[in-house]
Amino acid sequence: MTALARVRRLGLCALATGALAACQTGPLVAASPSLPAALARRAEGGALAPGRPARVVLVSVAGLDSAAVLGTGAGGAAGVAGVGTARPSLPVLRALARGGAAAEVVETVAPASAYPTHTTFVTGRRPASHGVPADRRLGRRAVRRATHSDAGRVRGSTLWQVASSDGVVVASLDWPATQGAAIPLLLPDVVPERRGETWQGLLGATTTPWLLRLVESRADPRAGAPGAARDALMVDLACEASASPTPPVLLLLRLSQVEAALRSAGGHGEAAHGALERVDRELGRLVDCLDAAGRFADGALVVVGDRALLPVHTAFYPNAVLAQAGLVGRGNWSAIARSNGGSAFVYAADAEDAVVARRLLGEEAERTGAFRVVSADEMIRLGADPDAWFGLEAEPGYVFGDTFEGPSLRAAAVRAAGGQLASAGSPAFVAYGRGVRPGLRVPRLRQIDVAPTLAALLGLPLPDADGRALVGLLSVPPKAPVGTGPPATP
């Protein structure tokens, strides 16, 4: 059975009445230990047809950094060189980087956490202007478990909006801040918040029925949590969508297992290396199925890391300090900190409470050496949440938490964290395929430039972006306005 036949078989199984139990539940395209044939042909001198790509696939890999892709030094994802360990084998990512354009340093937005960065990838705007300033929402009583998943909160034009307005199919698979988005093929990010909720159950009311039937045909409970099983499922769905008679012109896909491994085990050793290698194989599987469906040679594939996750050992809880002063309590707050991981933003009911909170946390910064206070002016300059009175940035090795009970300093529950304000560590950026200049190294790229660059690649407008298209990455000229920010060149 060919790879394309296996891809189409899942769709037939999912739609067949009473036959779901007999459906294929393994990967649609077997992971090959060697380089995908499409990349091997290119490496041997095969040329891409000139012109604009017929489609763009944008893949985000949580926690993937440029050091892992380029094989340079120890980096955020994390320390891929390892101490006394071999480098992970990433033939697909490195072939994409060699044959396309790859960034050596990527300047993140503030904070460098999942929801703000993913929203920047599709708007070209900083968090202050796109409306998704943090991963979790702030409630009147406390920092909520609820994430910023609602697409209705996103301000400015998105790639899916400008692509859909051009009359083409768009697909989005587990991409943050897409719940309720007008995307034809949508499996949004959903996170269980209450007792009894499940990932699969929450998908029912928010996912395109066709995609939901495919998810139900797999019936893999392990996909309910971020990790290898969910990544395999997302690639399965991307393959099925791409093999359909009307494949998406823009496909957004998030892979999560690298972050899960880094947070639980840190960056050195088998867990992180194993997750990176599995992601590389999933990318190879994606290339294989696109190629089998005839969708790879005339398209472009872009892989980004949302942020680097850096090693941590100690957690600081600013709300524990604010609680001792009566500013935070059960059921209410007059000043509160919301953690992003490597940074935190402080909110207050009024100026007087903000002054008290800043004094208390400034004293703790001096006492512990765990963080520094970030002024409102610096927050504005970084494009961070304009509703915060000031911010906190953790020193290397430290991470922030939200709870207000217990001591303010304690051992960190995770081994690695993102969410910094500055570009500590560098996420990955690789673009490969039709319309992308081959063999290009980009010394520095800003995350706000990704969406305008992809819009230019597709010949679409994105006029209200903060970033600019990096036209030097492309072999095709922009056809429409793609940003209003200051110029950026490779």
What does it look like?
With 490 residues, the chain is of the alpha/beta class. The protein has 2 domains: 54-309 and 424-473, 3-Layer(aba) Sandwich (Alkaline Phosphatase, subunit A), CATH 3.40.720; 313-417, Gyrase A, domain 2, CATH 3.30.1360. The chain contains 16 helices and 22 strands. The strands form 6 sheets. The chain has an 8-stranded mixed sheet with strand order 7-6-8-1-9-20-2-21, sandwiched between helices. Strands 10, 17, 18 and 19 form a 4-stranded mixed sheet that branches. A 4-stranded antiparallel sheet has the order 13-14-16-15. Helix 11 runs antiparallel to helix 12. The two termini are 44 Å apart.
List its salient traits:
490 residues; alpha/beta; Alkaline Phosphatase, subunit A; Gyrase A, domain 2; eight-stranded mixed sheet; four-stranded mixed sheet; disordered C terminus
The N- to C-terminal Cα distance equals 44 Å
How many beta-strand elements? 22
Q: Unreliable runs, pLDDT <50, ≥5 residues?
A: 1-32, 74-85, 486-490
**Cα gyration radius (Å):** 22 Å
Q: How many domain regions? A: 2
Strand content: 15-25%
Kindly report the CATH topology of the largest domain: Alkaline Phosphatase, subunit A
Task: Please outline what is shown here.
The chain is an alpha/beta fold. The strands form 6 sheets. Strands 7-6-8-1-9-20-2-21 form an 8-stranded mixed sheet, sandwiched between helices. Strands 10, 17, 18 and 19 form a 4-stranded mixed sheet that branches. The protein starts with a helix and ends in a 32-residue tail after the last helix.
